[in-house]
Each structure stands twice: as C-alpha cells, then as structure tokens.
Design a protein that fits this description.
Blueprint: H1 61-64, H2 73-81, H3 126-150, H4 157-167, H5 173-193, H6 197-216, H7 232-247, H8 259-262, H9 266-286
Helix pairs in contact: 3-4, 3-5, 3-7, 4-5, 5-6, 6-7, 6-9, 7-9
Length: about 300
C-alpha cells in the first residue's frame, strides 16, 4: 500500500507533529482561561499592527498602540510658513517639563548700573540750582586762579603772588604759590564741570580756608566786616564749597552716574573733614601763628 503524495509524514523536515488527542470528557480550553499562563510568542508576525503575546506588559507607545507624539505649535507654525524647524540649542531649549505650560515671564528691570531710589524722579529744580551754584563758585575760583597764574583780569601773575605771599608771612613760597594756583584754577574747573566733585570742592574749600585764616590773622579780633582785611567773601565761598560737597553736584554734572551726585553720604562727609584738616595743617606748616588771636576765648 503506497502513501498519499499530499499527506506529510512525521519524518519529513518542516512537518508539524500531530497534536496529541484530547482525553475523553475533558472540557475545551481557551487561551483566556489562564491570564498568567506563558504563551509562546510567534517568531514571524503575520500582522504587524498586533503586538506579540508575551508575559511582559507593554511599555512603549508602539506596543500600547498609541498615536505618535503630537508636534509642538511652534513646529506646526514653521511647517505652515514653509520654514524648516530649527533644532533646540542649550540657550533656546525649554527648561519646563511640559510644552503646553509656558514659563512665567520675567519681571522687567531697569537696565542701569545705579539702583533708582524712591524720590529720584521728583527732584524738581534741585539739579538746576546745584548747577548754578557750581558755576558761580567754580567760576569765581577760576577767575582768581587766572589772576595769579597768568596775570589776567589785572591780576598779580605768578611772580606777583609769590612776592605777596612772602611779604604776608608765608614760608616756602615756591611750594605755597603753586599749591594755591592749582587749588583755585584746577579745583574751580572741576567744580564747574561737576567732575570728581568731592575732591574738587574739597580742594577749593581748603584754599579758601587758608585765605580766611591768613586775612583773619592780620589783626586781632574778628575780621568779618573789617575795612581792609574783611573775611566776608571768604566765609561765603567756604560755605558754598562745603554745601557742594554735602549736597553733591546733581544730575547736570559729569558725576551724574556716581552715588555722591544725588545721594552723598559718608564719603562726602569724609571729604569735608579732610578738607578742613588739610587747610589747618597747611596753614600751620606754611605760615604758622594763631589766626584766631583776640576772637572770643582764643
């Protein structure tokens, strides 16, 4: 008896062994009767849309059957406008977790190096008044400095001021005269410009204090309204120079970006004290004597 040509045999390669017969009386089983049972995964997938049946739970979007990631609005807008989306860099990449939640806008700050304080914008005519004060005080010292340095405005000139100081009891006139001219002319220019104001106003203050002490010491008693050695003008100029140190030059000055321009404090006070100390020490070293003789308890 010959074998049928279309019937596979058990010994043929690639043939499937016959299933074992089900015992009589046993109920038919389904793969869903035991959910935890390990099922054999097929090696060749006939339907790519269905995941393989394994014991491991699905983890990826493809295994879960989810839609691909929805593009961001910026990417869709660039695609609509015809521009290629740019890859995010370290500076442009979002630092928040979800693209649908934009970051909170940063608070606006004023791009200035100096912190604006309350009341700075309500100064009124203060800066204009300080400018006028600086021009008057600085111009007065420039006038006297040119008289002594160049002989302008009917001044004595350099040689004349050296002779006058020597006759007035000043020592080391070769040092005293240049210091006097530098303080009046250089300090006056800086005060008028509002540049390095605490130092410039301190220089003219020290000069005018020495002039006050010199004229005050020419005769006993207080010489505020004396006929020939009155110290009235020197007193007014000294008070104006001290006021500029304590108030600052204002915003209409080259020092407008400095703290002492509108809010002077301890630094300006130190400059005032240093000007008084420099004037007294200079007078003692270059002139000497007691200029306050006969004034009150002195």
């Amino acid at each position: 008896m010959t074998e049928k040509p279309n019937e596979p045999t058990a010994d043929a390669p690639g043939s499937t062994p016959p299933a074992s017969p089900r015992p009589a009386g046993e109920p038919v089983r389904s793969p869903f009767d035991s959910p935890t049972e390990q099922f054999t995964a097929t090696t060749v997938k006939t339907d790519v849309t269905k995941p393989e049946l394994t014991k491991e739970p699905p983890r990826t979007d493809e295994e879960l059957g989810l839609d691909p990631e929805v593009p961001l609005y910026a990417e869709m807008k660039e695609a609509i406008n015809g521009t290629a989306p740019t890859a995010p860099t370290a500076d442009t990449a979002p630092t928040y977790a979800f693209a649908s939640i934009p970051p909170a806008p940063g608070g606006g700050t004023e791009p200035t190096t100096r912190i604006r304080r309350r009341g700075d914008e309500r100064r009124g005519t203060l800066d204009l008044g300080l400018l006028l004060l600086r021009l008057v005080v600085g111009g007065t010292f420039i006038y006297h400095g040119l008289q002594k340095a160049a002989g302008w405005f009917n001044g004595p000139g350099y040689d004349g001021i050296r002779t006058a100081m020597e006759n007035g009891g000043w020592k080391h006139v070769d040092i005293a005269a240049p210091m006097l001219i530098a303080g009046e002319l250089g300090g006056g220019i800086l005060v008028a410009l509002g540049l390095a104001t605490p130092l410039a106003a301190g220089a003219v203050l020290a000069v005018i204090i020495d002039a006050w002490l010199w004229k005050q010491g020419m005769a006993p008693g207080f010489q505020y309204k004396a006929e020939k050695v009155s110290v009235e003008l020197e007193s007014v100029l000294a008070g104006a120079a001290a006021a500029i140190i304590l108030t600052g030059p204002g915003r209409l000055a080259l020092d407008r970006g400095r703290g002492w321009a509108t809010r002077p404090f301890l630094g300006s006070l130190a400059a005032l004290v240093a000007a008084f100390a420099a004037a007294v020490l200079t007078y003692i070293y270059l002139h000497g004597g007691n200029p306050l003789e006969g004034v009150g308890p002195f």
